[in-house]
Amino acid sequence: MTTNAPQTLAWEPLDSAHILACQRVPVPSVLHLLPERYVQNFANHPKECCKNPHNLEAEAWYSTPLEQAKGIPDLYKFHCQCGSCHVRFCVGGDHPADPAKKDHRPFWEVR
């Protein structure tokens, strides 16, 4: 029996399997924590509203219970005022070609 269900990437669990790590906050309040390439991707987005960090809110998620046990989120969801949701997967750790570069996984607390 075949299904018409869309294929997913092997590392990408269903949204229902994700575990919230950090509550949604305006991007400008966590901009200093985000990897530079995330900020650059905002500027390169084709939609004008998605280019402006002031139109975005960020959430951090654990993709699996194993990542939750590590205590460092690995999925970042950016919600725009237009309704778009941009998802970034962050492996983190050392850069493969340049040991001086590190891709840190940001974490924040809402008080």
How would you describe this structure to a colleague?
There is one protein chain. The protein has one domain (15-95). The chain contains four helices and six strands. It is globular and about 35 Å long. It is of the alpha+beta class and 111 residues long. A four-stranded antiparallel β-sheet has the order 1-2-3-4.
Content of β-strand = 25-35%
Give the overall shape, derived from the CA principal axes. Answer: globular
The averaged pLDDT comes out at: 78
Secondary-structure-based class equals alpha+beta
Chain-wise SSE layout:
Elements: E1 19-26, H1 27-30, H2 36-43, H3 48-51, E2 56-62, H4 65-70, E3 75-80, E4 85-89, E5 93-94, E6 102-103
Antiparallel strand pairs: 1-2, 2-3, 3-4, 5-6
Short note summarizing the structure:
With 111 residues, the protein is α+β, with helices and mostly antiparallel strands. It has four helices and six strands; from the N terminus they run βαααβαββββ. The strands form two sheets. The chain has a four-stranded antiparallel beta sheet.
Spell out the key features of this protein:
disordered N terminus, 4 helices, 111 residues
